[in-house]
Amino acid sequence: MTIKKLLVYGTAAGLAGCSALPGPYLDSSRLDQSRKPVVAEQTYSVRPIDITWFADQAAQARPSICPLQCFSATTREDYAYHIGVDDQLTIIVWNHPELTGSAVGGLVGGAVMPPLPQGNAGTGAGGTAFGAGGATGGGATAAAGAGGGQATAQPAGSSGFEVRVASDGTIFFPRLGRTRVAGKTTQEVQRIITAGLSKTIRDPQVDVRVSGFNSKSIQVTGQVHTPQAESITDTPLTILDALNRAGGALDDADLQNVGVMRGGKRYTVDVASLLETGDPNQNVLLKDGDIIDVPNRANSRVFVLGEVPKPTSVPMNRGRLSLADAITEAGSISPTTSDPRQIYVIRGAAKTLKPDVFRLDMTQVDAMMLMTKFELQPQDVVYVQVSASARFNRVLDQITPTLQTLFFTKAIINGQ
Description:
Outer membrane lipoprotein wza fold like; 17 strands; wza like fold; 3 domains; alpha+beta; 10 helices; about 425 residues
């Protein structure tokens, strides 16, 4: 009888001592858990993923909206480049060699002054633009005046020279003196110079062009091959052009959520839609000071949970991912524990705290097609429900070891 009591006491002590054994256990004695979680009492309607849902989506489809001014035939016609500080101008007065550098000071101390450095647009980084007949040899350079830009004279007979816009927005031109050009187009500057020269020259023929675009630029950062600053020229610069100049996007780029920072505000542009469908309402026309941010796909992913062999998060490919793709990435649904009639998609909980819930019944013959057409959105949660029989078996798995221990103990006691 003593042996039976020892076995009973030993078994009870072993069961009671499980809490003291090593394992994943958190001591909650110092945690104040008096505040109970608030569970929303409201219910959420579940929308079946069926043919009628796709019909409703097609009926409610609306054209995309351009977040800023987008490129079009009208914007191309209306676009005009306005000269700014540090831009380099080439001014040509035809048939008047006296206005070339060779007649305007030309050599300074017997040496030719070097041209001013260029930016990364116009003639290229570190390059120098020349007027008609320009070459690297035989040219002369004229100094502009106090506080102004410097003029690089062209070879005799070329009738033109280059001048950089000074910090006060002016240039120096022979016979006109200092002239304000900042904020004006080349046509406006041409008219100003023509009017000024008309006082001393009969019917002057003047041509003005920007040979170095240095005053306006945008920045391209993030998931691109060559993050860099890009100059805005006399050709409209769109977001697609900017990304192409930066070498294109990396494989991990989230092109559905490209950002344009302007005026302290971030505007989201769906470049993926622009590339796939040619959506003109996403080809934003860029302005001076814009910052293009191409994020990675960290926030553009979908979570697959529940009765699947491999619960996982699936990144979206250029903002696109179907329900079939997500389930396939998780190894399909479990054939032994899942309920194929209850595959849920929970959407919008992170933003509105009021989720939209969709349900797919994979036992229907058209479900295979529907799941390939159902497009997921970033942060969607796909949940595969457990079957009732699997839940019952799991309960048995939990209590079976305890029952076996009790029966084993009873058998030992009865056997003594």
